Amino acid sequence: MSGRTDFDPPPDTHAEDAEDAEDAEDAEDAEDAEDAEDAEGAEGADDADDADDAEQDDDALRAARRARWAAVGTGTVLALAGAAAALLRLTGSTPVLVPAAYACGAGACALAAVLGSRGRTRRALWLLIAGLMVMALGDHFD
């Protein structure tokens, strides 16, 4: 704002004459009548909204179920793979740190599978990542 005193407000903020004021009141009355009609028609639309909400809830439940199954399946497969690698490395001539890393990573993935089955899929994802990183660290020491 420049602080000028000769500033006039925009033309839409004040009525030039009485006819414009009456037209504005008529327009407001017409909008109120349309709003009332929309409210009556909205009651029928509520049923459609309820159906859409139920469909969205079903989609959300399916997505949650898929996330749980994915966490459980991935955690189980990685835990079995880590346990098998730990047993194979234990029979070889590798340092003890290698099979221990595989076993710890497998344990983390197994815990992630349990968390995933209980619906803690975000925590399960991060635990899967951590377990896989521990197994990769064990492979690095091999």
Feature tags:
142 residues; mainly alpha
Please characterize this protein's 3D structure:
This protein is mainly α and 142 residues long. It has one domain (13-141). Helices cover 82% and strands 0% of the residues. It has three helices and no strands. The chain has helices at residues 18-91, 97-117, 121-141. It is elongated.
Which helices and strands appear, and what pairs or packs with what?
Layout: H1 18-91, H2 97-117, H3 121-141
Helix pairs in contact: 1-2, 1-3, 2-3
User: How would you describe the shape?
Assistant: elongated
Give the N-terminus to C-terminus distance in angstroms. Answer: 71 Å
Q: For the residues shown, what is the average pLDDT?
A: 79
H/E element string? HHH
Largest sheet properties: none
Helical amount: over 70%
Strand tally, please?
A: 0
User: Over the alpha carbons, how many angstroms does the gyration radius reach?
Assistant: 33 Å
* SS-based class: mainly alpha
Number of helices: 3
Determine the strand fraction and express it as a percent band. under 5%
Poorly predicted spans: none
Number of domains: 1
